[in-house]
């Protein structure tokens, strides 16, 4: 599995946020004031428009893998910026109005473009990536803390700023940015996600897109690389320590390998995958790649300072950790000393990691079956949910 699958079993504290249609008079940072507004949609014919209302909260291929480390500026960058046009009142988006399988996803060409609050920017979406949390949210596994339906799904985004709120200082119209648009994955995630022509995002959740990456590569990074970084940081990982990464070819695992080695200075990185992805692990910097179809990692004579379980094998993972070590668990049950966490989206983390991305020390990994065009979002989700993707599943181009 790739990023954030762990979130499915965590109960988060419910927060409320202002409506996406709120005006300057009630706009403020969610870190300073709690609002009792929720966003709902009113459907009139085919047109979906946002309205604010006070509501009672509910109870709780055989192609080469897409590994990129380009030294030159990617060609789509300047051409996409040049395509910025006047902002329409309606946009094309994928929407679901009930929880369920991929069949609840519907294409709608008459969704209102979200209004921009004072601390937000409006992004013309160029590419978006899918995550397991998107699928689990659509299936209703987080309904107790979800925002009201209907929902435009999507967490990861890469695109161009077309409008800025009055309090925004770090970005301007025309900037190429990327980020995870939801600060907390389970606490009222946005109803206007990234699988749309436009999305509104708080300035603090974004960073400038790495200059050497195109929008497809950048879109696949935010949630996964932030999960990789925060998990390592929580273990106190540091230079000279060793790590075992389970599911090293997944969205998060492929970045844990690189971040552990290039950013934190790991002395030894071992990772697991199926036979077909062993070379990918080595190309990312794994000192030893283990074929989990042929070997049991817990039988290795060596033990590790940290085991990063991105597949859901906590009971086995704890057998491979040194005494006093840490086990990060992203999905499934947690066996002590394993722990689970809810990733927090922060533009500051992306800015910290940008130099590693721009130097090529850390690479974006895009699944070779993609990118999927915007009219194949259902197919993209179906593929994601097979749990066989190597790296990230990305949607591009978006009209």
Number of strands: 18
The helix-and-strand class reads alpha/beta
Poorly predicted sequence stretches spanning 5 or more consecutive residues:
1-65, 68-82
- Percent in strands: 25-35%
Task: Kindly provide the radius of gyration, computed on alpha-carbon positions and rounded to a whole number of angstroms.
Answer: 20 Å
Q: Largest beta sheet, briefly? A: 6 strands, antiparallel
Question: What form results from the Cα inertia axes?
Answer: globular
Q: What is the share of helical residues?
A: 10-25%
Count of helical stretches: 9
Q: How far is the first residue's CA from the last residue's CA? A: 29 Å
Query: What is the overall pLDDT average?
Result: 84
Order of helices and strands: EEEHEEEHEEEEHHEHEHEEHEEHEHE
Describe the structure.
This protein is of the alpha/beta class and 399 residues long. Helix content is 19%, strand content 25%. It contains nine helices and 18 strands. Strands 6, 7, 8, 9, 10 and 18 form a six-stranded antiparallel beta sheet that branches. Helix 4 (222-235) packs across helix 5 (253-263). The two termini are 29 Å apart. Residues 1-65 and 68-82 have low confidence and may be disordered. Belongs to the zinc-containing alcohol dehydrogenase family. Quinone oxidoreductase subfamily. Keywords: NAD, Oxidoreductase. This is 2-methylene-furan-3-one reductase-like.
């Amino acid at each position: 599995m790739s990023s954030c699958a762990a979130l499915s079993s965590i109960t988060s504290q419910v927060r409320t946020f202002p409506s996406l249609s709120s005006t300057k008079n009630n706009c403020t940072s969610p870190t300073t004031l709690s609002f009792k507004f929720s966003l709902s949609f009113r459907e009139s014919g085919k047109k979906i428009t946002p309205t604010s209302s006070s509501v009672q909260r509910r109870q709780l291929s055989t192609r080469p893998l897409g590994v990129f480390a380009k030294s030159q500026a990617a060609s789509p960058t300047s051409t996409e910026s040049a395509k910025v046009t006047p902002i329409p009142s309606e946009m094309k988006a994928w929407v679901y109005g009930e929880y369920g399988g991929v069949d609840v996803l519907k294409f709608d060409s008459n969704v209102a473009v979200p209004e921009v609050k004072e601390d937000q920017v409006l992004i013309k979406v160029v590419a978006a990536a899918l995550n397991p949390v998107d699928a689990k949210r659509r299936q209703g596994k987080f309904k107790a803390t979800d925002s009201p339906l209907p929902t435009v799904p999507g967490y990861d985004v890469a695109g161009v700023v077309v409008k800025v709120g009055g309090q925004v200082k770090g970005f301007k119209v025309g900037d190429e940015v990327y980020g995870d648009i939801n600060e907390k994955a389970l606490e009222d995630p946005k109803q206007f996600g990234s699988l749309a022509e436009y999305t509104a995002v708080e300035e603090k959740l974004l960073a400038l897109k790495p200059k050497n990456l195109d929008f497809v590569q950048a879109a696949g990074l935010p949630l996964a690389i932030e999960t990789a970084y925060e998990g390592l940081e929580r273990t106190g990982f540091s230079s000279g320590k060793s790590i075992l990464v389970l599911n090293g070819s997944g969205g998060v695992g492929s970045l844990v390998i690189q971040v552990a080695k290039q950013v934190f200075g790991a002395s030894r990185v071992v990772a697991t995958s199926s036979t077909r992805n062993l070379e990918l692990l080595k190309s990312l910097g794994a000192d030893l790649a283990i074929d989990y179809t042929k070997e049991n990692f817990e039988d290795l004579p060596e033990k590790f300072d940290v085991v990063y379980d991105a597949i859901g094998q906590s009971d086995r993972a704890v057998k491979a950790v040194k005494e006093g070590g840490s086990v990060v668990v992203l999905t499934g049950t947690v066996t002590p000393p394993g722990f689970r966490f809810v990733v927090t989206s922060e533009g500051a983390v992306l800015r910290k990691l940008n130099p590693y991305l721009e130097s090529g020390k850390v690479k974006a990994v895009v699944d070779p079956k993609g990118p999927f065009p915007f009219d194949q979002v259902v197919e993209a989700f179906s593929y994601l949910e097979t749990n066989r993707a190597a790296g990230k599943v990305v949607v591009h181009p978006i009209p």
